[in-house]
Amino acid sequence: MAKKEAEKVNEKAGKSSYTAKDIYVLEGLEPVRKRPGMYIGSTGVDGLHHLIWEVVDNAIDEAMAGYAKHITVELLPDGKVSVEDDGRGIPVEIHPQTKKSALETVLTTLHAGGKFGGESYKVSGGLHGVGVSVVNALSSWLRVEVRRDGVVYAQEYKRGIPSTKVTKSGKSDHTGTTVIFIPDTEIFPKIEFDAKKILERLREQAYLTKGIRIIFIDQRQPLPSYYSFRFDGGVRSFLGYLNENGDKVVQDEAFYTAKEQAGINVECALNYNEGIETQELSFANNIYTPEGGMHLTGLRSALTRTLNDYARANGFLKEKDENLTGDDVREGLTTVISVKLREPQFEGQTKAKLGNTEARTAVEAVVGEEFSKFLETHPSDSRRILEKCLIAQKARKAAKAAKETILRKGVLEGLTLPGKLADCQSRNAEDSELFIVEGDSAGGSAKQARDRRTQAILPLRGKILNVEKSHIDKMLVNKEIRALVIALGTAIANDFDISKIRYHKIILMTDADVDGAHIRTLLLTLFYRYFPQIIENGHLYIAQPPLYRVQVGKEVKYAYTEAEKEEASKGAKTTPNIQRYKGLGEMNPDQLWDTTMDPKVRVLKVVTVDDAKEADRLFDILMGEGVESRRHFIQLHAVSVKNLDI
Question: What's the pLDDT tens digit per position in 409-426?
């Protein structure tokens, strides 16, 4: 009676009860459907594609275990996705714990699989064992077929719940597993698979799993697309692919090693090119680790130590000379490091960084020993590599001196802002905006049009230096770049501090013609290479000025596309007066404010980098030294360019 009375009192007081009946237990795959983002990152484009990665990872694990030789991924016309491998096939006998078929156990239970004990998988990428069960939970329909012991077994599911039992559906002379699924529209607001994204991932996995053939078929079009990957060279082939669109390689032969050390398989390929960018791709159990980790640390350490030892032993460095630093030996470096180990420890849910200290020890030992042999047996390549490193060392010292003389008072002590900067009155970075505009004419209009309280204007004269081809010391003596760095307030390179940024919106406002596009690309290159945190934190934007001013009688409309121009002109009784804006300077201040700068009506594009590796490759092609790769890119994409203003 006392308990009931207490509950009544709580109800009258407006308090909710908190007893055992209020504790909800999510069973089976309910947690996945309740919080899908915890398991696949998001329910957007990346999360949707993550479903494919999870199933493919299981097939790759079979390949790494030495059983699967072929994997086929198909996008079917009816929205289905099929992933097939010729591995051993998921076991189907009754599981001793769950008393269900092992197949159903794997498909309906989180953390169930052959990767948590025993000898089924000595090396595995799908560590958490939630892969195929999560795909099952987030699919409106899924069918799994297992070829094993001469029999084909099959079972179907709806939103993670079995709709059939495991049944024998035929005979087969082969082994393997096929998973066919339809992503659930209740979970994913937009279901549209990107063939290019899938191709890049599958190509990468084929490089990392030497000798496996991965096939991708896109049957969504009347004429299906068919791709097949197999790379017997492993990461050495991967290195060749990375070099295709980059700067000229300085070596006659790339360094490559594949060796086991203390139970860890280490595979590494590297070479140097004539550029200044560093490209380091690191993988653990075929999982890309964008933030590196112990395996990458081991590689860097071995590289620095080995090159210094060789340089001193062969007279490249004299007794009084200081050692090469890690930055010196990494300039112009392209490398792929892949390790396979039994119990990888990834930091963070996204597996972005490898934490195993034993991976560092293994990589350092293997690369140190094998790279030392390479240098001794390839004297001409060694000489070119050391000359490259010594030039980088010299440039680093020059850059340090340039930074100290140019930036010390300008940025770090917050003295004089550039005279051309029309700063805003606000000192609150969250409210402040910086418009970077081309030329004095556009700068003049923007300065008159702006809201002085929150909007600052920095006009740049001409095209800034292409930083893709220049060292930082040359950048910092460039007046336009120096003015921009000082205006931002964050400093640059090792002194960069995002917390000191003076504006939370940095807006590139260039003309809508070829020159404007070129200037915008140069600025994007600068931000991508030297201020990536500004992009990552969502501070960089591109303004969208109108292309046309359309006047019909007394009514004026602005059109941002060809279609909008046609729409604005439609139904006019008199001939419309159409003005094509080639430059921002052609607009008077009122027009510029009304169309491009007024926060209430303007359109801004936020700059993001969803795929850093692809962005890096494209910047190399478009802005680097490789003329042939740029010519090929232009020829390939020329037909898609419309309304080119020259």
Answer: 444 344 467 888 999 999
Q: What angle do CA 88, 90, 92 make, to 5 degrees?
A: 120
Look up residue 416 and give its DSSP letter: P
**pLDDT per residue as tens digits for the range 507-536:** 999 887 777 878 888 888 888 888 989 999
Tell me the catalytic residues: 438, 511, 513, 515
Could you give the residue ranges of the DSSP H alpha helices within 332-438? 357-377, 379-407
Q: What is the pTM assigned to this prediction?
A: 0.69
Residue 9 located in a structural domain = no
The separation between CA 230 and the C-alpha centre of its own chain, rounded to angstroms, equals 24
List of E strands, 67-192: 70-75, 81-85, 139-148, 151-158, 161-162, 167-171, 176-183
Q: State the CB neighbour count (10 A cutoff) for residue 218.
A: 19
15 domain residue, yes or no:
no
Per the structure, the count of domains in the chain is: 3
User: At 253, phi and psi to the nearest 5?
Assistant: -140, 135
Domain span at 515: 416-545+604-640
CA-closest candidate to residue 456, choices 482, 426, 496? 426
State how far Cα 540 lies from the chain centre.
Answer: 17
Query: What is the rounded CA–CA span in Å between residue 461 and residue 241?
Result: 38
Q: What is the mean pLDDT of residues 552-562?
A: 84
Q: Which pLDDT band, with edges at 50, 70 and 90, does 284 fall under?
A: very high
Query: To which H or E segment does residue 495 belong?
Result: none
Residues 129 and 248 placed together within one structural domain of the fold: no
